Amino acid sequence: MIFKNPVVKGFYPDPSVCFANGKYYMVCSSFQYFPGIPLFESEDLVNWTQIGYVLTRSEQVMLDKINSSGGIFAPTIRFNNGRFYVVTTNDTTSQNFYVYTDDIYGEWSDPIYVDQGGIDPSLYFEKNKCYFMSNGEDDKGVCGAVQCEIDIKTGKKLSESKCIWQGSGGRFLEGPHLYKIGKWYYLMAAEGGTEYGHMITCARSRSLWGRYSRNPNNPVLTNRNKAPYIIQGIGHGDLIQDQNGNWFILSLGFRQIHLWMPFHNLGREVFLTPVKFGEDGWFTAGADGTTEESFEIEGDFTQNEKKNFTFGNTSWNVDWSYMRKPDLKKYVLEDTKATLFGSDITLEDADSPTFLALRQKDFSFLMSADVAVAPEGNDASARYEAGFTVYMCENEHYDVALRKRLGAEGYEVVLKLNIGGIKHVQKAVPIKSNKVKLIVKADNFSYSFLFKEEDENIGMPIGYGYAKYLTSEVSGGFTGVMLGMYAIGSCKAEFENFEIEYR
Ligand code: 6LW
To answer: Which residue among 11, 12, 29 is best mutated to probe the pocket of ligand 1, counting the most ligand atoms within 8 A of its Cβ?
Structure first.
């Protein structure tokens, strides 16, 4: 079959994968979003279905008021002795920890902390022993991929932390994972930073503690010299063997909004690249060490893509995300309706506004919902607003909302464009009632905003904002655009007939 990359679209960075009970499981980073660590299942490595999240309880992870792109960094998932483990870093608190479950569809344990620094932790199990690796500094102050043995029941270190590889010379050695394949221990990692210079490199050793010798043909995978090409930033991956014996790397990468525009708004997505082992025991990946838009692989199945997202065909607990430490009392979520209660916290705050979002999965889409807003409580002088946000972070987001201004009689539809500290009201149009259909239309270059009053057939445009300002190149950080519903102020906002249709 021929599959197309990315295999998971939208902001799902730092994929890690394991095989268990006939299926593949994958986790990704989630930063300030809650629940933390999206969890996916697949039968073929190409079609992935999100089955939930790993960190579903606020007590498992401190996200309260953390910076955007802080919080949960690159996790690793492993399966050992009937138990799933996910190990990750809370970068804001500088803590490495893991959680486990015996039921992949159930709850995960409370965190077990490991006293080794760095980020991008990984676990490797062998003969009833467990080894923990992260990229950081070892007990002697040497930086690189640092390993120690741990007691998997308690997280306690059973050995010193020792740097076992310093990479092939690229900057930011990250995401190290250890595998035993045949007689070799392979250490695969990312280097070059998670931007355009990103790459995957590897080293091997006959012994777990090294000495590791680098692959003479590093990097094994990178798109850094592939231009003009939409797919860039390939790196930070995990190696996996399928049920036919074929090997793959599941890695992150991103898609530029256009060949000649080095901006990406969809975050880092998940790419699949075939891997081949040579007679010398080293492996090569992809097309001459690059990841392509499609590959032909063994298997007779089709790649499915969900193009339409509604309240009816998504699940609140599986697909949607809140920010940081949400007050769940502010959300009443039903089959065909979401009711959001606003608070004083706005989308400009690095806090937990009333916000519920899906990741933007592709460049072109149409999003709409009927929104009705009403005051909550007896505060006649209240001001409030509710609607859609196209949200990169608190500094960069475009909001289209139904707004009640202080002392005003009626309501207006407002479009606000926020870019790097510039807070611009593009337009505010008075409307007849407290109900309106809000519409967002997007392509690679812009998001356009429209609204429709109850008795009208045609959407009224109120402005647009460029996509390139809601990108990692402008905002920095590690996340991608979220398409969200929000409410601010003492109000109750009802959203119905919600739909995102990708084209
Ligand atoms: C992650 C690091 C990286 O921890 O970006 O792409 C960091 N690689 O490995 C955040 O996702």
So the answer is: 29
Q: On the CB side of 320, how many CA atoms lie within 13 Å of its CA?
A: 20
- Could you read off the pLDDT of 237-273 as tens digits, one per residue? 999 999 999 999 999 999 999 999 999 999 999 999 9
| 59 backbone dihedrals φ, ψ, rounded to 5° | -70, -15
Give Cα separations from 218 to 164, 189, 406, 427 (angstroms): 17, 11, 62, 53
Q: Look at residue 380 in the predicted model and tell me its pLDDT.
A: 58
- Domains, the chain, in order of start with CATH, read 2-296 (2.115.10.20), 308-502 (2.60.120.200)
Closest residue CA from atom 2 of ligand 1: 174
φ and ψ at 60, to 5 degrees? -75, -20
Polymer length in residues for the chain = 503
Q: Verify whether ligand 1 is closer than 6 Å to residue 174 (CB atom).
A: yes
Phi, psi of 5 (to 5 degrees): -95, 150
Confidence of residue 39 (pLDDT cuts 50, 70, 90): very high
E strand segments, 376-471 = 384-391, 397-404, 411-419, 422-431, 435-442, 446-452, 460-466
Count of H-run helices and E-run strands, the chain: 2, 38
Q: Are 377 and 490 in contact (CB under 8 A)?
A: yes
* β-bridge pairing 411-419 and 422-431: antiparallel
- The rounded Å distance from CA 342 to ligand 1 centre is 33
* Mean model confidence pLDDT for the chain: 97
Give the model confidence (pLDDT) of 241-251 as tens digits.
999 999 999 99
Ligand 1 near 191 CB (within 6 A): no
Nearest ligand 1 atom to the CA of 175 is 9
Q: Which residues are catalytic?
A: 14, 174
Residue 409 confidence class, pLDDT cut points 50, 70, 90: confident
Two structure tokens written together for 35:
């629940």
Dump pLDDT digits (tens) for 190-210: 999 999 999 999 999 999 999
Q: 449 alpha carbon to ligand 1 midpoint, in Å?
A: 33
